[in-house]
Amino acid sequence: MTNRLTKTLLALAVAFAMPAVSFAQDTCSNRGDLDEQYCDDNHDLTADTPTDPKKLKTPNTLVFTFTPVEDPAVYDKIFKPFTDYLSQCTAKKVVFFQVQSNAAEIEAMRSGRLHVGGFSPGPTNFAVNIAGAVPFAVIGDANGYQGYTLNVIVRKDSAIQTMEDLKGKKVAHTAPSSNSGHMAPVALFPALGVTPDKDYKVLFSGKHDQSILGVNSGDYDAAAVASDVFDRMVERGVISADNFRVIWSSEKFPTQDFAYAHDLEPNFRDKMLQCFYDYRFTDELKKAFAGADRFYPINYKKDFEMVRFVARSAGESFNRAAYDKQNAGKK
């Protein structure tokens, strides 16, 4: 009886002590929209590097990817000279991890299976808050970073001439988390005389290339797409620009950014970043990215403010609750 009573009292003591221990360990002074396992004590809106050395990673194999705006296999091939260079520069094996969706890319970094990769502007906010991604570069050249516009495209022979002509039409958006493919249209179109999901039903295509191909085939009357994706498809001969008209274009947004996992060991991380910044694109990469020749340094807090503004204007947030709601039923 005495032994059982002692064990019961010990178990209760541990149970009551656990919340206090957890509370004592949580010394984070600021998180913002970051998930609970991250901290932003320096208020730069990204996850801080862990202070516990045991939580830092120096991977033997560095896993890299690029946002799935088009067929992932295309970018696996295009980035092959770069991943070979990165392997030599970091003295690590580098593999290109093909992802099929923005959610899959975010989950890969959150779970530690992805160390560095290119993200689309809209999903970048989720990657930062949910996966601990830290954006560090975009495509650019010596004069600055490369941007893109939100374009509304129609077939050349379409009767649609103005934004108000979209009313009642089949208009493709890409995905709920996409900046140019959904959030920017929701935020910007009402001032142009047309409100998505009121004046026309939003049809999600899944990706920019699918929206573009859908307009080309007549499946959609119009589509909101990123100009850089459209231009790359023209460059590769997938579509002909002569088959389309652009009825409206936005101001410039930052294009796909590159982000690393917040828990990379600092010395290794800094060496890897320098490898990125020193690299100059092959002719094939230059062609794929409209003449850009390098990874141009950025600051997430400053350079992505317009993307976050569009999201807020569209009533979007990028916390865990919003992420889970958006991906409910997709698994």
From TrEMBL:
It comes from the Bacteria. GO terms for cellular component: ATP-binding cassette (ABC) transporter complex. Residues 1-24 form the signal peptide. SUPFAM superfamilies: Periplasmic binding protein-like II. The keyword Signal applies. The keyword Signal applies. It holds the Pfam family Phosphonate-bd. GO terms for biological process: transmembrane transport. Keywords: Signal. NCBIfam families: 3A0109s03R (TIGR01098). Belongs to the phosphate/phosphite/phosphonate binding protein family. This is Phosphate/phosphite/phosphonate ABC transporter substrate-binding protein. It comes from Lampropedia puyangensis. The lineage of its organism: Bacteria, Pseudomonadati, Pseudomonadota, Betaproteobacteria, Burkholderiales.
